[in-house]
Design a protein that fits this description.
Number of domains: 1
Oligomer: single chain
Number of helices: 2
Bound molecules: beta-D-glucopyranose
Distance between the termini: 28 Å
Mean pLDDT: 95
Structural class: mainly beta
CATH architecture: Distorted Sandwich
Length: 342
C-alpha cells in the first residue's frame, strides 16, 4: 500500500509539490521517501508494539533545508548523482577532451557538486501498490556534466522485506553516471553505531589520498583494521582509528545483485543485508556527522553503506568506470534486505 502527504509547510515550490510517500508491506514494514532529493526519511520495522526506525531522518522538507543540516554536508538518505563520491581535481576526459565539474570539496567534486540530485525536486509516480518511481531530467552541463540525462529511480518494497532500488538512465551525449542512495543505518536507536556488527564480503579497498579522493591503487586489507570479513564490531578499533570512509571492491561480473555486506546489532532483532549490481561499496561510519538541529546527530550516530561505481572511476587507469553513451541504458540495482529475529 502507498499513501502520500505533503512534506512541506508551503504548498508547492516553483509549482512543484513536495510530498512524502509511505510504502507498507503485509508485515507492517514502512518505507518513507520524499520526492525532494529522493530522500528515504524512514525505514520503520514493527518490533512488538513499537515501530523501530532503522535510518537517520527528519520530519519535513524544511528540516532538510535548515542551515545547520546543510552545513554538515551529510546527504542523509538521499539519491546521490550524477556522480557519487569524488572525482579527483573535478576533471575527467570524454574521448580526449577535458571535462570540468563544479568543485565543492577543496579541488575535488563530491556527490554531484554544489546542487546534486540530493537537492532536486523529482517527479513522482505511483506505479503500483508497492512501487514508486522518481524521475528527473538533468540538463546538459548541469554542474559541468555533458549530455541531457534522463534518470529514473524505482523503489519497490517486497513481501520478503526487501527494499529494491533500481536506477535507470539515458543520455543524449557521452557522459559519466554513478548513482547511489545514502541512508545512514542505526538499528537500535543508540547514540552511536560503534557496537553494531558489520560483515563485508570483500578484502580489498581502494587506497585513499589525504584529501579523501582515491588513488589508482587497490590494497589487500585481510587481517588489518579494515577487515570486516569476520563480522566485526564496528568500534572494535575506534581507539586507534574511527574514520572508516573507504571503498571496498568486489568481483561483480554477471550483473545480478550480489551480497556485499550485513549489518546487525546485539541490541536489536533487526539485521540488514546490502546487495547490489555495483562493483564497489563505500563504507562511511559517520565520523563527521555533527548536527544540532532539527535533531541532534553526533559523530557515528549512523553508518552509510553505499554501493556504487569506483570513486574517481572515469580516471581509474586500468579499467575506466561509469561512462554512459547514448546507445546504452544505465541499469543498476541496490537491495536492502531486512531480517527480523535472532
Ligand atoms: C563520503 C564521505 C562524506 C559523506 C557525507 C560519504 O559518501 O564517503 O566522505 O563525508 O558521504 O558527505
Amino acid at each position: 500500500m502507498i499513501s502520500s502527504h505533503s512534506f512541506s509547510s508551503k504548498n508547492d515550490l516553483d509549482n512543484k509539490k513536495i510530498e512524502l510517500f509511505t510504502i507498507r508491506n503485509k508485515s507492517g514494514i514502512q518505507v518513507s521517501i520524499s520526492n525532494y532529493g529522493g530522500i528515504i526519511t524512514a525505514i520503520e520495522i514493527p518490533i512488538g508494539l513499537k515501530m523501530v526506525n532503522t535510518v537517520l531522518g527528519f520530519k519535513s522538507y524544511e528540516d532538510y533545508r535548515s542551515k545547520d543540516y546543510l552545513n554538515n554536508y551529510a546527504y542523509l538518505g538521499a539519491i546521490i548523482g550524477r556522480y557519487a563520491n569524488r572525482i579527483n581535481n573535478s576533471k575527467f576526459k570524454i574521448n580526449s577532451y577535458d571535462c570540468h565539474l563544479s568543485k565543492n570539496e577543496g579541488k575535488n567534486h563530491l556527490h554531484g557538486g554544489i546542487e546534486g540530485f540530493d537537492k532536486k525536486i523529482w517527479t513522482a509516480k505511483i506505479i503500483s501498490q508497492n512501487k514508486l518511481e522518481l524521475s528527473y531530467l538533468s540538463q546538459h552541463m548541469e554542474e559541468g556534466y555533458p549530455g541531457n540525462l534522463q534518470v529514473s529511480v524505482k523503489y519497490e518494497l517486497t513481501e520478503r522485506n526487501e527494499l529494491k532500488i533500481k536506477f535507470n538512465a539515458k543520455t543524449d551525449k557521452k557522459t559519466i553516471v554513478n548513482l547511489t542512495q545514502h541512508p545512514y543505518f542505526n538499528l537500535n536507536g543508540n547514540k552511536s553505531i560503534k557496537n553494531h556488527k558489520l560483515k563485508i564480503y570483500s578484502n580489498r579497498i581502494l587506497k585513499k589520498k589525504t584529501d579523501n579522493s582515491v588513488c589508482n591503487c587497490i590494497l589487500d586489507i585481510k587481517d588489518t583494521i579494515f577487515d570486516f570479513s569476520t563480522n566485526k564490531t564496528i568500534g572494535a578499533n575506534f581507539n586507534e582509528f574511527d574514520d572508516y570512509d573507504h571503498c571496498y571492491i568486489f568481483d561483480n561480473k554477471n550483473k545480478s545483485p550480489k551480497l556485499m555486506a550485513e549489518l546487525s546489532s546485539d541490541d536489536s532483532p533487526i539485521k540488514v543485508q546490502i546487495l547490489s549490481t555495483y562493483p564497489s561499496m563505500q563504507l562511511y561510519a559517520g565520523k563527521h556527522l555533527n548536527i544540532s538541529k532539527p535533531v541532534k546527530l553526533d559523530s557515528h550516530s549512523g553508518i552509510a553503506i553505499e554501493p556504487q561505481f569506483y570513486p574517481n572511476g572515469p580516471n581509474f587507469k586500468k579499467d575506466r568506470h561509469a561512462y554512459l553513451s547514448p546507445k546504452e541504458t544505465y541499469r543498476e540495482e541496490i537491495i536492502y534486505r531486512f531480517k527480523i529475529g535472532k
